[in-house]
From TrEMBL:
The lineage of its organism: Eukaryota, Metazoa, Chordata, Craniata, Vertebrata. Its cofactor is Zn(2+). The keyword Kinase does not apply. One of its GO terms (biological process) is IMP salvage. This is AMP deaminase. One of its GO terms (molecular function) is AMP deaminase activity.
Length: 761
């Protein structure tokens, strides 16, 4: 039951809270909205009664669907936001150790207090139910008998009646509602601009606030399709390997466009000859000044006292409501699960949404593969040392090792207690036996044998996934940005070795290592790194016939990731005074938000260009919030469709609540975090799950953290035992992983409607 607080004439309802007990059904349809059990009124001037000021630097070509966004809300507070944001940035720069926001959730209350609180809540609920029966007794008499039977079978629901102000003054509540809604509008703007997905339920409420007509087509009721007795239970597979018998002549035509990177962002022109007659295509990208102003607003938002109190109380309310739901309906949920035919936890789809290809195998698998290679390919030339070619036998002779000497302990690739808060030692674990030469030979795509061994071991992992039938993975491959031909080499590796599986999709990760390359004089400036990363993608989109392997490979790439040790101190603040990429020639590494902005801006232009060609688009899914300053999560909230880790959300109630309302996917890896940054029992995953954040379990690096050939099941098994998760909790985590992933849906005709990004909704 919703309660309203009237705010005068012309007021409209704002719903910044959630009434659902679980994650909304797919973030769309007619599911319970995640925006609130309580409604707070907002004056007309907040709802857009006055026309927002337009930025002088706003770009043409912004999609029509974005016109209702507060694209650039310039106010007299912008200067204050800037001061607050820069003060926070300076505070984070001054701390050399791992920095966290000065806010912690209190420890769990003693069991006596919890029991007393539960009893008071039960008494209040019983009184409310009695009152409701008296008020609506006449209506109950007219309910049909079959409807009464249906109500008896439904789960018990909890309703909160009466005026609720979340324990804060009404003016603070109003300000909090305005700020939270504005933050959601900002995310919707950046997701729409880059053709990434945005939670449909949240978008529906934002449409109501912006007084834009609802898109009812997306919310039509669809009758349940009967399942035939002989219906297939496995997903359809491609009959032909995508890298077999491809014809270079069948590639899409050359558009003849020209490319030029200006101030760190690629611009596309109608002709390759960039003369006065060549005009620039209208492909939108975010304005730098507007982006920094929006980031400053969010930085000021997360330290606002009343808003922190409001969001903290809402999060506590969600946790309590989930516990009440479990008390009332746990047995009914389990009974309902048992009635589903041919489905249990073992044979539902699960996606490992965060796993690195170079460590996707376990240590025993790698050991057996190395021994097998030493037995079959001992005389194959695998390395060149100072101009001299070396066979595999000679490489191991220099280490004074034989196949008999090798063991799991000798490889020494597993993380241990010495890697905690030591990312440098963790990176060293990627080198078998502590030798980087073995890493280059066996788990690199660009080496003397053209990545043959790495391709074979990846295909063995793919075979294990296909054998399991219900497990999928999104493997991450690296592009470093040191040279222009990295993309073509990676694509040739995948196509020539036929590294493909219907159970695997690719993400491309970009390590934030500009400072290393600049120190070695491999790059002149940061713009050169951006050109090496993005220009080959534009060329493959405009001239597929010139990059046929890359064109084929990109069809199986979901998006981009940004990786590195987040706990490393940053020596620069990203603001309007920051050097442009062409002028960034110093050896210091750019800050996290600097990397993310220019990756996002170039991906946005690329997505619009690929949509014009009918190709699929990409998303941004960086490592974010594992360690380091809290403003990493602010950048992730603005430009990322999903993130990995998100541990620091436990210390930022405002950001945690925003991530919940926007239903931003968070791929969490408790075993990885346990060895690097956070003990397992302190991991916030069960807390996030109970509050309704869209979290999933992932493995990160099975080579370092897992023991079995099914690392994802190992992750689920440990989480279930330690946190006492129910089968419903496990299935919900698996469902979230599917929703977060980039796997396409194989469906019969007619196809389901697609979102603005061209991805199935």
């Amino acid at each position: 039951m919703l309660s309203k607080v009237e705010g005068g004439d012309g007021a409209a309802s704002v719903c910044p809270q959630c009434c659902g007990m679980r994650i909304p059904e797919g973030c769309g349809g007619a599911a319970d909205p995640p925006l609130g059990a309580h409604t707070v009124s907002v004056p007309a001037e907040v709802r857009g009664g006055s026309r927002p000021l337009q930025s002088a630097r706003s770009l043409p070509g912004t999609p029509h669907c974005l016109k209702h966004f507060p694209v650039d809300l310039r106010t007299s507070m912008d200067g204050k936001y800037k001061e607050i944001a820069e003060e926070l940035f300076c505070r984070s720069l001054a701390e050399s150790e791992m920095r966290t926001a000065p806010y912690e959730f209190p420890e769990e209350s003693p069991i006596e207090q919890l029991e007393e609180r539960r009893q008071r809540l039960e008494r209040q609920i019983s009184q409310d139910v009695k009152l409701l029966k008296e008020q609506h007794e006449d209506r109950v008499d007219h309910i049909p008998k079959d409807r009464e039977a249906l109500l008896e079978r439904e789960f018990q629901r909890v309703t909160i009646s009466g005026e609720e102000k979340c324990g804060v003054p009404f003016t603070d509540l109003l300000d909090a509602a305005k700020s939270v809604v504005k933050a959601l509008f900002l995310r919707e703007k950046y997701m729409g601009l880059s053709l990434q997905s945005f939670c449909k339920t949240t978008a529906r409420f934002l449409q109501e606030l912006s007084e834009k007509p609802l898109e009812t087509r997306s919310y039509e009721e669809v009758p349940e399709t009967p399942v035939a007795a002989d219906a297939a239970v496995h997903p359809p597979f491609a009959e032909q390997h995508p890298y077999e018998k491809w014809d270079p002549q069948s590639m899409p035509a050359d558009l003849g466009f020209g490319l030029k990177m200006v101030d760190g962002v690629v611009h596309v022109y109608t002709k390759q000859d960039l003369t006065d007659k060549s005009t620039e295509l209208d492909l939108p990208y975010p304005d730098l000044q507007e982006f920094i102003a929006d980031m400053n607003f969010l930085m000021a938002l997360i330290i606002n006292g009343p808003i922190k109190s409001f969001c903290y109380r809402r999060l506590q309310y969600l946790s309590s409501k989930f516990q009440m739901h479990v008390l009332l309906n746990e047995m009914k949920e389990l009974a309902a699960q048992k009635k589903v035919p041919h489905r249990d936890f073992y044979n539902i789809r699960k996606v490992d949404t965060h796993i690195h290809a170079s460590s996707c195998m376990n240590q025993k698998h790698l050991l057996r593969f190395i021994k097998r290679a030493m037995k079959k390919h001992l005389d194959e030339i695998v390395h060149v040392e100072k101009g001299k070619e070396q066979t595999l036998k000679e490489v191991f002779e220099t280490m004074n090792l034989t196949a008999y000497d090798l063991s799991v302990d000798t490889l020494d690739v597993h993380a241990d207690r010495n890697t905690f808060h030591r990312f440098d030692k963790f990176n060293a674990k990627y080198n078998p036996i502590g030798e980087s030469i073995l890493r280059e030979i066996f788990i690199k795509t660009d080496n003397r044998v053209s990545g043959k061994y790495f391709a074979h071991i990846i295909k063995e992992v793919m075979s294990d996934l296909e054998e399991s039938k219900y497990q999928n993975a999104e493997l991450r491959l690296s592009i470093y940005g040191r040279s222009r031909d990295e993309w073509d080499k990676l694509a040739c590796w995948a196509v020539n070795h036929r590294v493909h599986s219907n159970n695997v999709r690719w993400l491309v990760q970009v390590p934030r290592l500009f400072d290393v390359y600049r120190t070695k004089k491999q790059l002149a400036n940061f713009q050169e790194m951006l050109e090496n990363i993005f220009l080959p993608l534009y060329e493959a989109t405009i001239h597929p016939a010139q990059h046929p392997e890359l064109h084929l490979f990109l069809e199986h790439v979901d998006g981009f990731d940004s990786v590195d040790d987040e706990s490393k101190p940053e020596h620069h603040i990203f603001n309007l005074d920051s050097p442009l990429p062409g002028n960034w020639v110093e050896e210091d590494n750019p800050p996290y938000s600097y990397y993310l902005y220019y990756m996002y801006a170039n991906m946005t232009v690329l997505n619009h260009l690929r949509r014009k060609r009918g190709f699929h688009t990409f998303v941004l899914r960086p490592h974010c919030g594992e360690a380091g300053p809290i403003h990493h999560l602010v950048s992730g909230f603005m430009v990322s469709e999903n993130i990995s880790h998100g541990l620091l959300l436990r210390k930022a109630p405002v950001l945690q609540y925003l991530y919940y309302l926007a239903q931003i996917g968070i791929a969490m890896s408790p075993l990885s975090n346990n060895s690097l940054f956070l003990s397992y029992h302190r991991n916030p995953l069960p807390e996030y799950l109970s509050r309704g954040l869209m979290v999933s379990l992932s493995t990160d690096d099975p080579l370092q953290f897992h023991f079995t050939k099914e690392p994802l099941m190992e992750e689920y098994s440990i989480a279930t035992q330690v946190w006492k998760l129910s089968s419903c909790d496990m299935c919900e985590l698996a469902r979230n992983s599917v929703l977060m992933s980039g796997f396409s849906h194989k469906v019969p005709q007619p196809p389901p409607p697609r979102g603005p990004s061209g991805r199935l909704q």
